[in-house]
Amino acid sequence: MLALEKEGILIPSLCRSGECSMCRVKIVSGKVFQPAGVPVRKSDRKYGYVHSCVSYPLEDLEIVI
User: Fold this and answer.
1) For the whole model, what pTM was predicted?
2) What is the rounded average pLDDT of the residues 28-52?
3) Number of domains forming the structure of the chain
């Protein structure tokens, strides 16, 4: 989320810890790092959604907001 905010892209978020799911984005291409213990639903993981507030880009990303 910080990388998005640095570019002026604001994503809704309440908790900034991955709990509320408001900051979910779909990754179309690229990879992110998510620390162990981030609460991501199985269906989100299956379909490529991550919580942007606790995801760190490892490479260039294409996402759907």
Assistant:
1) 0.79
2) 92
3) 1
